Give the backbone structure.
Amino acid sequence: MVAFEEFGKRVLNLVSPFAAIVKPQSAFFELFGPAGFKAQATLLRCAKELGFVTILDAKRGDIASTATAYADAAFGPIWNADSLTINPYLGRDAVEPFLSAAKAAKCGVFVLVRTSNPGSGLFQDLKCDGKPLYWHVAAEVAQWNASTIGECGLGDVGAVVGATHPQELADLRAEFPNVWFLVPGYGAQGGTAADVKAAYRADGLGAVVNSSRGVVFPFHPDDPDWEAKIVAAAAKAQAELK
Amino acid sequence: MVAFEEFGKRVLNLVSPFAAIVKPQSAFFELFGPAGFKAQATLLRCAKELGFVTILDAKRGDIASTATAYADAAFGPIWNADSLTINPYLGRDAVEPFLSAAKAAKCGVFVLVRTSNPGSGLFQDLKCDGKPLYWHVAAEVAQWNASTIGECGLGDVGAVVGATHPQELADLRAEFPNVWFLVPGYGAQGGTAADVKAAYRADGLGAVVNSSRGVVFPFHPDDPDWEAKIVAAAAKAQAELK
């Protein structure tokens, strides 16, 4: 577990000249149980100390009383994250505790709208009243976001929209100009810099494009040059996305 | 944290004459960070030692590579649960790793279909091709379940269907006779024993009805008789649901 934490810290240091935001994936900490979660806490703290904005990618979602516990963990002293990914399937009253906790802590959330995986359309593409389900979710997200919009024209309730669906990304961007998009799927999942261009607004704001496996694991485990390869991958992503 | 774990152990011992299954809610352990997760592991282990079947209520869901990590944690040595609740929003390829890991470990999953919270209809009730979204999810669950059906006529891929929607529970039971239902919402959330009757098949199998807050917290924190009240609440639930 020490090695796990040390690797994470090293990655944070290596990518800090190139990235403003990091998005730790909670599942890979959970896989190591309580000790893994200790590493999650340590790395979230390290990331803050290095000046990163943090998005805890945990895709939580539950009924209100339970959602409150997840939200308090995310934005309180346990994880102290700046943002959390959440799942909308349970509806508004289940999302509400995340919105209130985020607001109280001056943090934000990203709600799953159109995910980057190949089979995301199974339910997300189902047509309801002429529009796909993900569009209905996006419209609700825009409503939840409305009261939080700041001077920059963007609010605290964002949407996860995969880079692997460029046309949908463009359509959603056009319809919902005040919603931050978190855009996974660039890099290892096949999305290109051209694919994610549509996620940004005309002023260049509005999207957080993340490369996770592409930057963290661009090397073979035996490679003595792994640090240089992480730096090169981060620099390449930064240049491509400029 | 010692008190937290001791309380959990005491509850397990108190309810063991009345309940066959326990469903720890992961959020309330996460709220205490790594130490809370240590308690989660301890209580899952205790529950197994006492002969309970365990359902880890964590409502996980993510793209395949990440879902694999959650599934390995749930069914491997980390949590060693018999079953896990999962969220279907990301689609089949995101659910698949949970199904394979459950199968390999001779465990099961419960997929969120129709949740018990008051606002669950926001997306779950959206009509797609004449049927509500939750019905489409239930139909997929039935397909995922099909290859796992055993001699008892039930399989390893269940559905979460809230007690707070009795008519929908009855309709789903009639349409999907081979799917286990996990039925939250009985007790503290307002569902009654009459409401959940429709969740069972004619042979009396097919449903796991859980009472969580109703059994674990039927007392005022200062109450010296709290143990007797937990026993009384568990006995009452057992009698009502017989």
Observations:
- Chain B is about 45% helix and 15% strand.
- Chain B has a mean pLDDT of 95.
